Amino acid sequence: MGKRRGSGRATITDVAEHAGVGAITVSRMMRDPSKVSEKLRSRIEKSIRELQYIPDPKARALASGRADVIGVLIPSLSNIIFADTLRAIHDSTQNTPYQVLIGNTRYDAEEENHLLSLFLAQNPAALIVVGIDQSDNSIKLLQEANIPVVQIYEIGQNPIDMSVGLSHIAAGEAMVEHLLDQGFSKIGYLAARLDPRMERRLEAYRKKLKSLESFDPKRVILTNKASSVNIGRELMRQLIGCAPDTDAVICANDDIALGALFECQAQGISVPEQMGIIGFNDLEMMQAAYPSLTSIRTDRYKIGTLAVDKILQRLNGDETDQKQIDTGFELIQRDSTSRR
Amino acid sequence: MGKRRGSGRATITDVAEHAGVGAITVSRMMRDPSKVSEKLRSRIEKSIRELQYIPDPKARALASGRADVIGVLIPSLSNIIFADTLRAIHDSTQNTPYQVLIGNTRYDAEEENHLLSLFLAQNPAALIVVGIDQSDNSIKLLQEANIPVVQIYEIGQNPIDMSVGLSHIAAGEAMVEHLLDQGFSKIGYLAARLDPRMERRLEAYRKKLKSLESFDPKRVILTNKASSVNIGRELMRQLIGCAPDTDAVICANDDIALGALFECQAQGISVPEQMGIIGFNDLEMMQAAYPSLTSIRTDRYKIGTLAVDKILQRLNGDETDQKQIDTGFELIQRDSTSRR
DNA sequence: CTGTTAGCGCTTTCAA
DNA sequence: TTGAAAGCGCTAACAG
Question: Is the pTM above the cut of 0.85?
Answer without folding.
Answer: yes
